[in-house]
Protein: 4-hydroxybenzoyl-CoA reductase subunit gamma
Organism: Enhygromyxa salina
Amino acid sequence: MAEALLSLRINGESVHAAAPAHWTLLEVLRYRLDLIGSKQGCDKGDCGACTVQVDGEPVLACLTLACAAAGREVRTVEGLGWSPEASNGCHPLQDAFDRWDAAQCGFCTPGILMSAEALLRKVGRVVTRDEVREALAGNLCRCTGYTKIIDAVVDASEMLAAPRDET
Ligand code: FES
Ligand code: FES
């Protein structure tokens, strides 16, 4: 099968990959670039496990052609630990998920983190539980019952809103 050369921006870096022209962004991330944090669940837009950000907006990588992401900024869960808000390679959302035990099998977690991060960045203040529910409406979790996920996202927004101790 003929492959096309793709030039992409992923987590702030320029990368190149050869892949069939019909491949999705999710396939290129996982099977050409070894970025396997974004999960392949339903592969048809139902579960949200593949959620990444393109130009800061959450998108379903399983429904996005890789060629459509060329020239845009793609961010995956692997890039969260490198964001300015991160500390010791850990974004406040990741820290909160850990403290609240918000992941069980963890399959949904990368997609949820990317949807939640987009919400917190857009809102820029402590979020309400309803805002979190709405932002995560497209991310399914079969394990947790969502309560701890919502707790963790609200907690992370409080951490981000708190003044930083620079000492
Ligand atoms: S794998 Fe993309 S929505 Fe389920
Ligand atoms: S923790 Fe298992 S699907 Fe969400």
